Amino acid sequence: MPVRPAQHYSMGGIRTNKTGESQKLKGLFSCGEAACWDMHGFNRLGGNSVSEAVVSGMIVGRYFTDYCLSHDTNIDTSIIHDAITKQADYIDEILNRPEGEDIFEIKKRMQEIMDEKVGIFRNGDDLQSAVDELQELLTRSKKASVKSKIKSGNPELEEAYRVPKMLKLAICVAHGANQRTESRGAHYREDYLKRDDANWLKRTLTAWPDENATLPEVSYEEIDIMTMELPPAFRGYGAKGMTIEHEDSAKRQKEVDEIKKRLEKEGKDRFEIQDALMPYDLPLNYKDKNERIGVGHE
C-alpha cells in the first residue's frame, strides 16, 4: 500500500501510534508509506520512501511480532463471513445493474482532473472545480454497469468495484488541499504562497461515516511544538521570510538551546542530549550507540 503522507496524488494512510498500531483498530499494524507514523509530514515526493519503508518496517515489524506473541490473535470466523458476504452482495449489485456508465471513462476523467487541477502547483479555483467534478464522478461511478457478467478474470468488474473507492480518496486529497490555505512541502498554493505555521501546523484528518455522502468529514489534529527536538524554522530552501511562524517555535527553540548548553557543560554525549530533548523508546537494541564515519565510537 504505497500511500504517501503528503497531500499530493495520494493521501496519508492509517493513523498509528508510535508502535505502528492503529489508533482505532486494536491489532492492526501499518508501516512504510501506508502509515501516518510521523516520520514525515507534508514532504517533497521521492525523498521519504527508503526511510519510511526500511526504518519503520524494521521497528514496527518488531512491535508487531511482540504483539502476536503476547495476544490472542484468533479472529471470530463470523466477522470474516459477514465481510465476505457484504462484498459478494455488492459485487452482485454491480453485475445486476442495467446498462449505464462506462467505468473506464470515469476513471480516465478522474486521472485527468488530478493531473490538471490537483498537482504540485495549485490554486483555490482549480481545487474547488476538482472537488465539484470529482463528486459528480463519484455519483456516476455508482451507476456504472459491466458488459461481462462473470465474477472472475473480469477487469471491468474490478474497476467498477475499485474506482468509487479511488474517487473518495481523490476527493479527500482535493477537498483537504482546498481547505488548507497555505503552501507546505509538496502542497504549493499559488494563491497562498507562505507556509502558515500559526494556523496550519496541524494534520488533516478525513472520515467517511456516511457511505452515501459525496464529501468526507474533515477535522484537524494540532501538533505540539513543545515536544519537538527541532521546532519549525527556516530550513535553508525557498525564500526566507515565507513562513508565518507559530508563537511556540521561538519558545521551544530557546528551551532546546538551554537544554543543549546545560547538558554539554555537564559532559553529556549526543545520545543523552537527544534523549533529553525528545525521549522515545525503541525495541531490542536499536538505541545502542553506533559508529559514524570519521567520528568513531561515542
Q: Give me the CATH fold name of the largest domain.
A: Methane Monooxygenase Hydroxylase, Chain G, domain 1
Q: Can you count the helices?
A: 8
How are the strands of the biggest sheet laid out side by side? Answer: 1-2
The first-level CATH class name of the largest domain: Mainly Alpha
Number of strands: 10
What oligomeric assembly is this protein in?
A: single chain
Number of domains: 3
Shape, please? Answer: flat
The fourth-level CATH homologous superfamily of the largest domain is Fumarate reductase/succinate dehydrogenase flavoprotein-like, C-terminal domain
CATH architecture of the largest domain: Up-down Bundle
The average pLDDT is 87
Write down the Rg. 23 Å
Let me know the largest β-sheet. 2 strands, parallel
Helix-strand makeup class: mainly alpha
Task: Give a brief description.
By secondary structure, the chain is mainly α. Helix content is 44%, strand content 9%. It has helices at 49-70, 77-95, 103-117, 124-141, 155-179, 197-200, 247-265, 270-277, and strands at 14-15, 35-36, 121-122, 188-189, 195-196, 202-207, 217-222, 243-244, 291-292, 296-297.
